[in-house]
Amino acid sequence: MPRLSVREQLIDAAYDHLHEHGFAGSAVKDITYAAGVPKGSFYNHFDSKEAMATEVMRRYSADQGTEILMDRSMAPLDRIRAHFAYVAARLERYEYARGCLIGNLGAELSSENSTIRDAVDSSLNCWVVRLASALEEARTTGSLTSDVDGVTLARFLVNAWEGAAIRAKISRNRAPVDDFTAVFESLAADAGATHSAVREHAAATTAN
User: Fold this and answer.
1) Which of 34, 78, 84, 154 is the most exposed place for a label (fewest CB within 10 A)?
2) pTM metric for this prediction
3) 78 three-state secondary structure
């Protein structure tokens, strides 16, 4: 396997460090040490720690499983179930201790760093767009009972998910995730008949 570039090594190390320790708890020297590269090399690749954090969040967002929402080999409601099962499995991988990096950075830095705030907002908006499309498809097929428009419902679900991720991080268990799922399933015409199978499939995909 080709050796990762120094930039990729830094992003990999920062991804893990930021997710576990947050922005304030991740010094440049800690990231370069974890990456196994000289501290001075950091600024050859990033103008600032904020620029590095923005790149890390782009990567985290790209691995948020939103492509599942566009997989038309599955029914729209099952796509949504599989997507949220996927992001739930990401939380479970770290025993709920790390939460969602998007929400973590937003909560930590939105009031003081406009670059990070804009990156968080962009990530959440992209998530909403893909989710809203799947929700509208589900409404068209009659599998969604809510009369709320797709964009509004998508914003609500993304906001509720981020709240559940924070609560799970505090409680260190999946109860908030299960609460989220129960409320979402109350909107489904089939009352979650296929949810268990979809959740198992998404968990297996995340593990791979």
Assistant:
1) 34
2) 0.87
3) helix
